[in-house]
Amino acid sequence: MMTAAPPKPRLEASNPELDVFAIDYGARRRQRRQQQRCQALVFFWQLCAFGTLAAGAYWLAHRPEWVLRDRQQIEVRGNQAIPTPLIQNTLGITSPRLIFRIDPKALTQQVQALGPVRSASVHRQLFPAKLVVDIAERQPVARFPYQGRVGAVDAEGVWLDPQTYRASKWPKLTLLADGTFRQQVWPQLYDRLQRSPVEIIEVDARDPADFRLTLHSGAIVRCGSFQPEQLQRQLQKLDSLRQLPALGQKGVVLDLIDPDRPLLVMPATAK
After folding, report:
1. Each residue of 51-93: pLDDT tens digit?
2. CA-CA distance, 116 to 164, in Å (whole number)?
């Protein structure tokens, strides 16, 4: 008896999971290409917008309204003794000059380099276009003859040249000294003089070993070698003796080299 042959295996259809993967992969490629086209289109429009803005900004920045053409467009404020043309020349701006090409920080440093200027700031103004320079001047506290010219010094010992600092009123106090004394000693000396109630009209420090003060009456106070601590004691003693009638006479010399032993020297013509 013959046995029936085993049935032939049937060819199954392709795996549905593989078909779905193939379909998804193709769709994804098409979707990715579409996204790339969209991104390229967006980038193109962004580039166009940026180029338009840049061109507009360039056109706006180079308008005639933003050009400095003369000194009338450089405003200087806060100066009284420093001539305005001097500050304008210090800026070194040649016209015409586009206002956006000016560096206010660099110009501020140039102005602050002037001796009579204590502080300065430079900023741009667009409506109308101009430069504004704000100045804070140094204040003279003593006359100071220097290099054949009588100028002044401030409380920090900075020389104020009369050619660049034209004060309408100069101080009564006069300092006679060299440049080293002015720079190194004068700041602390002036601080002590300012706190003294005795009016002093002249400080003579030309001889380091014979430091002298001249009072408003014309009397002279000898202090010997200048020493800050010693000067403080000398000024205190002078304050205690300022009511002496003799100190109201011109030519009287009060020796305070030793503050504990003051010596009053009357002129030969005094009665």
Report:
1. 666 555 554 545 566 788 888 899 999 999 999 999 999 998 8
2. 7
Tens of pLDDT, residues 174-184: 999 999 999 99
The whole-angstrom separation of Cα 130 and Cα 128 is: 6
Separation of alpha carbons 238 and 200, rounded Å: 11
- Assess contact for 187 and 172: CB atoms under 8 A: no
**Is 112 within a domain?**
yes
Structural domain includes residue 6:
no
| CA pair distance 181, 153, nearest whole angstrom | 12
Judge whether 270 lies within some domain: no
Q: 3-class SS at 267?
A: coil
| 105 and 47 belong to one structural domain | no
The Cα 123–Cα 103 span in angstroms is 9
Residue ranges in the chain modelled with pLDDT below 50: 1, 11-13, 18, 20-22, 59, 61
Q: Which of 61, 79, 114 is the last residue of a domain?
A: 61
